Amino acid sequence: MSSEVKKTFVVTRFDPDRDEEPRTDRYEVPVQPDWKVLDALNYIKDEIDSTLAHRWSCRMAVCGSCGMQVDGKPKLTCKDSLANYGDTVTVEPLANFPVVRDLVVEFEGFMEKFKSVKPWIIRAKERAVEEGTHRQSPAELEAFKQFSMCINCMLCYSACPAVSNEPEFAGPAAIALGHRYNLDSRDEGDSERLAAMRDEGFVYACSYANECSEVCPKNVDPAAAVNQSKLLATMDWMKGLVLPRGGK
Amino acid sequence: MVDVHKHDIIIVGGGAAGLRAAIAAVEADPQVSVALVSKVYPMRSHTVSAEGGAAAVARPDDSLEMHGYDTVKGSDFLGDQDVIEYFVEEAPKELTRLEHWGCPWSRNDDGSVATRAFGGMTTKRTWYASDKVGFHMLHSLFQHSMQFDRIVRYDERFVTQLLIEDDGIKGVSALDVRTGNIEVFQARAVILATGGGGKIFPFTTNGNIKTGDGMALAYRNGVPLKDMEFVQYHPTGLPGTGILITEATRGEGGHLINSEGERFLVAYDYGVGNKAELGPRDMISRAIIQEIEAGRGLPGTYGEYVHLDLRHLGEDKIMKRLPFVRELATTYVGVDPVTTPIPIRPVVHYMMGGVDTDIDGLTRVGGLFAAGETACVSLNGANRLGSNSLTECLVFGARAGQRAVALSKETSDGNDVALRKRGFEEQERIDTLRGKKKGGEKLSHVRREMTTSMERGCGVYRTQDTMDATVQEIAQLKGRFADIALQDDSRVFNTEIIAALELGNMLDVAEAVANSAAYRKESRGAHTRRDHPTRDDQNYLHHTLVHFDPAGPRIDTSQVRLGHWEPEERKY
Amino acid sequence: MRNPAHPHTLRPSSGTRTRTAPPAFPGDWPTANPRYRAYLLYGFAGLFFILAAGVMVRALWALGSGPGAWETFLETLGHPLYIAFHVGSFALIVWFGWRTFFQMFVKTQPPMIGPFPRPPVAVFPPVLAAAWLGASALLIAVLSGAIL
């Protein structure tokens, strides 16, 4: 197409079998006006250098695979338009993660944090299918819906200054998920989760930079979840002091 | 050195069907050990992209009979009716279970689960969570599954081979993407739940991972693929990217408009009658193509399109029911549906066909199951109704999981030594392929030619000539694929070798689709031929089976299980 | 340019299965965006408040040491450096209060505040502004001797 322009991509490369530390490669890519950053990476992979490694799948901003640093900021590359950038675009792996290869980061550390908030419905007695669905009013749904919208793209972990300094911090996405279940009217596991959240650094390492909410591509507002969780975890602890059996 | 992991059951794929199967297995027997092997982290699975909803009878004005009939009619009478009856009966139970597991279904004011209208469905029976149903279902299932320690996840493992002995399957070998090592997974039952293969087409709603891996694995190992000619074009995809705009847009009252500003489904007779925009997908996709061919399309960079108009729904309803559609249209075509109609065209979305299974999901290889889009249990026949597939993943995922547990108790483990040896052989094959610099063909180019050929031969409208040409071209491309050069010789996270293995799978699936299509000389459901424009129950009221053979595929048929509902003319 | 993060950042508990490059964050932090600068200033404000508290301790000490010491202390407050410090502290505490209550406070409210559900976000700014004005008026009234 005639309207194409060329942009230079400076891409982080790291092959643990060869490279002591990450380096960069430069690629010149003919860019179409409607392209996202991911389109350029796929062009590089298909036409210029098939050794480039990056994760992607849905290319519609919902699978959460393709988070990277673009010009130093965490972005979902399938959603981030190239029109926002100049002639030279830097693409790096997400900040704050160990780097596996090129643009691929280590995800297992997050998966452990993810599981530590017990992200499932906890009930004293499981409801039988024959009893039908729970009643949940639109307002009760609204109370947690926003925090259920996280696609685990990890941009928030990349943006967070507490994540980079406090390894025991559970981090924005994981806490938002725990909070999502705490707020769900069908769930009865909040004191279990809040007890876990009182572990050292787990929620309290957050210093409320609010960057997680700034970079979230799905408007989950994890900063709100983290800070509400701090308060709820503390109140739950105080309740335990005043009413030793949890007020039951 | 090949690592060996021993479990009772292996599930390949971490989408809705795979996760539901895993949960069903540990529910059936808390002691059973399940390996969940997926080439991506489960939350990346393509279930995540489903938008509109999941069907199950929920309202007093609805009935299992009606859901059953709608599905049979939608399938153009090619669905197996015992399967459909089981499906509609289990559907409400499965969606209720998901509700108990935390799925944030949208609600009516009284707190009951809300339902919306969908194409080809008589009444409102599609459960929804705004317009991110697949996303919420997948995340609910995945998060629920994490509490079971007996479900052991192996993420980012690409299954390269089924390990089959005389009395059935005994495991799989998988490439650990992270290390480049082959691992052997041993079990007495294997469930394939790897989704469809929409990526054999250039213009598809499917994500990059939808490469038909499970279909190809089964196909190459003696299991025929069934009804592969039936490829569903979703009427409303964004031009260029193919991103899905959900059918819920029409369920909530959106209109399809041509360049004259007409609601063409009302203005012209396309067989959908009063249903108009609520007609089934195959008919509406054909109507759009005909509008464009009649000169009533709008010109665009990526070919002609028509408009999906949501303006009359108003901002409130769009934000409440269809917020994701607004996000997608704004981000990917720069159009805000509140003020401007969305450009759309039909786009490859779903494969009705798949691995031939019985109602339990069991294939003709002992212990080998398939569920979800990978499988053809024969629920969808020649055309799937929107919102039946998410429910299908749950209903038949669960059934496969339960049956796999039962079957794993009756069969014996495979031969350790022999399986390990197969693992070594696979490691050798992969090591030879990795960074195989010799070769004259470029992977991405072979892939592109495959997709172009498939669109030409197996598009919305088909003719014998174009299908035959595609059959030939795919056969040639398979030859050229053997000669591809691979540049990346690193072991760690080598995505090039994964792409090569995926392309091998896609070529097999493409072969199955093209050959099945060329065989069926009638028009039924999504298989529409210009040279045979009508349905021919006399000669083609049967399933197509395609068997793999190195010399070229072999076509065979099997009976459709009719019953309660007699075939009749399909008119809405 | 990348700065090293804590070496254990997002590391799996059993270590990584292949050799990884250590976690890092952008080298231009914290100058990269104005939000980081505001965040740092917000944290840094604590130092200022410690100094201000130090002045108060000194005032109390002077008060306890007799009228002469108190007079001397009051005189030193007239020093341009002290005035600059107090103007700066005042500006900072006003900004700090605004950021704390008008920017951060709203989001930190739990879904139930006591027995009441959290009000809509739009309710907070006017209520907070009214509370602030009321508290300021009360303070001025007390300081000016109008009441008490």
Describe this structure as you would to a colleague:
The complex is a heterotrimer of chains A (248), B (572) and C (148). With 248 residues, chain A is an alpha+beta fold. Chain A has 9 helices and 7 strands. In chain A, strands 2-1-5-3-4 form a 5-stranded mixed β-sheet. In chain A, strands 6-7 form a two-stranded antiparallel ribbon. The longest helix of chain A is centred in the last third of the chain and has 21 residues, at 222-242. The N and C termini of chain A lie far apart (70 Å). Chain B folds into 3 domains: 3-230 and 352-419, FAD/NAD(P)-binding domain (3-Layer(bba) Sandwich); 234-348, Succinate dehydrogenase/fumarate reductase flavoprotein, catalytic domain (Flavocytochrome C3, Chain A, domain 1), CATH 3.90.700; 435-540, Methane Monooxygenase Hydroxylase, Chain G, domain 1 (Up-down Bundle). Chain B is globular. The model of chain C has no long low-confidence stretch (mean pLDDT 92). Chains in contact: A-B, A-C. Chains A and B meet through helix 1, helix 2 and helix 3 of A and helix 3, helix 4, helix 10 and helix 15 of B.
SS class of chain B:
alpha/beta
CATH topology of the largest domain in chain A: Fumarate Reductase Iron-sulfur Protein, Chain B, domain 2
Radius of gyration of chain A: 21 Å
Shape of chain B: globular
Which residues of chain A form runs of ≥5 with pLDDT under 50? none
Tally of alpha and pi helices of chain B: 16
Strand-residue proportion of chain B: 15-25%
What do the pLDDT scores of chain B average to? Answer: 97
Termini separation of chain B comes to 61 Å
Number of domains of chain B: 3
Question: In a nutshell, what does this entry contain?
Answer:
The complex is a heterotrimer of chains A (248), B (572) and C (148). With 572 residues, chain B is of the alpha/beta class. Chain B is built from 16 helices and 25 strands.
What are its keywords?
heterotrimer, A: 248 residues, alpha+beta, Ubiquitin-like (UB roll), Fumarate Reductase Iron-sulfur Protein, Chain B, domain 2, 2 domains, five-stranded mixed beta sheet, two-stranded antiparallel sheet, 9 helices, 34% helix, C: 148 residues, mainly alpha, 3 helical TM bundles of succinate and fumarate reductases, 3 domains, two-stranded antiparallel ribbon, 4 helices, 4 strands, 61% helix
